Amino acid sequence: MVNKIVLAYSGGLDTSVAIKWLKEEYRAEVIAFCADLGQGEDLKKVKQKALKTGASKVYVEDLREEFVKDYIFPMLRGNAVYEGFYLLGTSIARPLIAKRQVEIAAKEGAGAVAHGATGKGNDQIRFELTSYALKPEIKVIAPWREWSFDSRKSLIDYAAAHGIPVTATKAKPFSTDRNIFHISYEGGILEDPWKEPPPDMYTMTVPLEKTPARPVYIEVTFEKGDPVAVNGKRISPARLLGKLNEAGGRHGIGRVDIVENRFVGIKSRGVYETPGGTILHIARRAVESITLDREVKHLLEALMPKYAELIYNGFWFSPERIALQKMIDEVQGAVSGTARLKLFKGNCLTVGRRSPDSLYDARLATFEEEDVYNQKDAEGFIKLHALRLKANKSLRKRHV
Fold first, then answer.
1. Alpha helix locations (H) across the chain?
2. Which residues lie across from 234 on neighbouring strands?
């Protein structure tokens, strides 16, 4: 018997319907929890909406600094990109929301937590793996896997019938998820992968046709793998990301339109805007290029797809992700310096990088005269590496 349920509440269609449905189905008190991760909404109105829809209590908490410092920055230290393009803006938000949700459940004496993720998507996995990792005995309720609604249209009809105000419409039913790192768009009119997204859909980035006619140059400074300053001015993690979102958005940087492979085995089209995150990803790789040893850098590159996959699939609190993070953070101790970037017409170009700990030696790299490298030494180096190639060729000749 569940007497209290803590619902991860966004104020959107799914979770608004979920409040009323959970109360009716489980005859339980529903406590709504809304995390302020920089989604840019009036959360006072979200709180009022939850109470009006039937929540007995509403937690609204500002987690922006924690989100950027303890989740986004560690992820960026691993250069995490899923399937070549996706910077994991939604994926990285779920562990923090679910962690705090479980903590509130413990505080309120609630026996269950609930979420509005569908039974086809990744978010159900991310929420639930986090909940079980942190509190194995918790009961998780996923309304989409239980209720009779079979589409967002049916949810809209239910909301209208019960006086629940929602922003989704039958004419524009795509699903969005926004936080300080990105915004995503899925479903509805985007489900045809051949069709171009409507130009009025985007919210964080300016269309290329309307971006400035002149480029802008910015500098991002890193200390031990984390960004600490923009153009020489030190600011907090969330404010730094917000500043880069503004700069990147103004120049149309960070749009991605991909068909990705969900953990459940379904291909899904996702459109994303990640302006500040794109700048940080490019900037820190520039600083890495002059501060990391070659083999260490190559090892990180080899591990990155696995690390990104763990985050995408919801294993943030798994022992393997934590072990990988420890290695990544150890390596990032050397990554301090500044990257200079040129923002122009959707492009973020590295045009300079420097570090007090740089491994780059102009005397070695130059094509001009120098006295620190004996070019004749390369001959023996090449011949040693050619030994197995010669042996392989000779063996094949004998078997032809």
1. 13-26, 43-53, 64-67, 73-77, 93-108, 123-134, 152-161, 237-250, 275-291, 294-312, 319-332, 362-365, 377-398
2. 229
For residue 205, CA distances in Å to 246, 247, 280, 281 come to 9, 9, 16, 17
Predicted pLDDT of residue 1: 79
Give the full edge-to-edge strand order of the sheet including 175-178: 175-178, 183-186, 267-273, 255-261
Residue with tokens 């700069």: 247
Q: What is the CATH number of domain 4-63+91-171?
A: 3.40.50.620
Q: What is the pLDDT of residue 309?
A: 98
CATH dotted code for 178-354: 3.90.1260.10
If DSSP codes are grouped into helix, strand and coil, which group holds residue 341?
strand
Residue closest to 289 by CA, chosen among 375, 365, 373, 374:
365
**Structure tokens of 383?**
């011949």
* Residues found in the chain: 400
Q: What is the pLDDT of residue 98?
A: 98
d(CA 201, CA 82): 23
Note the Cα 200 to chain centre separation in Å: 23
Instruction: Please write the tens of the pLDDT for every residue from 131-163.
Output: 999 999 999 999 999 999 988 789 989 999 988
Q: Residue holding tokens 């070695």?
A: 364
By CB atoms closer than 10 A (0-12, 13-18, 19+), residue 356 is: exposed
Supply the residues annotated as catalytic: 14, 94, 123, 175
The token pair that represents 144 in the structure block: 């989409």
Q: Is residue 118 helix, strand or coil?
A: coil
Judge contact between 316 and 310, C-beta under 8 A: yes
Range 350-376 average pLDDT:
82
* Cβ atoms of 109 and 134 closer than 8 Å: no
Residue range 94-136, pLDDT digits in tens: 999 999 999 999 999 999 999 999 999 999 999 999 999 999 9
> What residues does each domain of the chain span?
4-63+91-171, 178-354
**Distance between CA atoms of residues 22 and 145, nearest Å:** 13
DSSP string, 205-217: S--GGGS-SS-EE
Predicted confidence (pLDDT) at residue 373 exceeds the cutoff of 80: no
175 pLDDT band (50/70/90 cuts)?
Answer: confident
pLDDT(173) > 60: no
pTM of the predicted model as reported, rounded to 2 decimal places: 0.93
Task: Tell me the CB-side half-sphere exposure of residue 107, using CA atoms within 13 A.
Answer: 11
